[in-house]
Amino acid sequence: MQTILKTENITKYFYTPQKFKVLDNISFEIKESEFVSIVGKSGSGKTTLLYVLSTMDTDYNGNIYIENNVITGLKQDKLARIRNEHIGFVFQFHYLLPEFTCLKNVMIPALKLNRFSREEIEVKAYQILKLLGVEEQALNPASKLSGGQQQRVAIARALINDPKIIMCDEPTGNLDSKNTSIVMDIFKKISTELNQTIVVVTHDNDFANSTDRIMEMQDGRIL
Q1: Cα separation of 221 and 215, whole Å?
Q2: pTM for the model
Q3: Number of domains in the chain
Q4: Which residue segment(s) compose the domain that 81 sits in?
Q5: What tens-digit pLDDT sequence spans the chain (223 residues)?
Q6: Which CATH number do you get for residue 154?
């Protein structure tokens, strides 16, 4: 199986209130369609690592590769395109635009990428919403949905550009146990049915145990 994401000796420091090594010489590979969770206590470095992997934090030493292409050191405009084209994001809070319909929220990244016509993007957005069981909410404002439905729409938005990797920061952190279970099942479904590579930072042990591989962090290192 092809390696989608690879890190070499990722090291990062925080400098306030004093110099502190938050990531310590991290190297690993993630394969195509692998569903990986990153766990660890608060302060272990897992969220910092996710932001480095996502290219949103570029202040580190070492190298990151997506599909064997080094992305470390690229200019911000190129990194922005890589994020839109190759990385889907799901956060603890859904960050949907409340005044827009669910359909429009899902379409926005694809409209920005401008790879397909608006009509093609709309058809695809409907298909993904249907896959995630929220197609009946497509024309409703995002603000009218429940928390679990909003997170499913956020997952649909992350899928719209066929990303190489979906990166998630505590995607079930704001959900009750019922919706956590639904979202967990959705991630399993898109991992197996769409061969989607997924990297999730989570405090939820049940969620982590449902993934293909668990990477545990402590003091900025992977155990």
Answers
A1: 10
A2: 0.90
A3: 1
A4: 3-222
A5: 799 999 999 999 998 888 889 999 999 999 999 999 999 998 889 999 999 999 989 999 999 999 989 999 999 999 988 988 899 988 877 788 989 999 999 999 999 888 899 999 999 999 999 988 898 989 999 999 988 899 889 999 999 998 999 999 988 888 888 888 888 888 888 888 888 999 999 988 888 999 999 999 999 999 8
A6: 3.40.50.300
3-state helix, strand, coil in the chain (%, to 5): 40, 25, 35
- Whose structure tokens read 């306030």? 16
Angle, CA of 15, 58 and 25, to the nearest 5°: 70
Tokens 């967990």 correspond to: 184
CA dihedral 6, 8, 14, 18 (to 10 degrees): 150
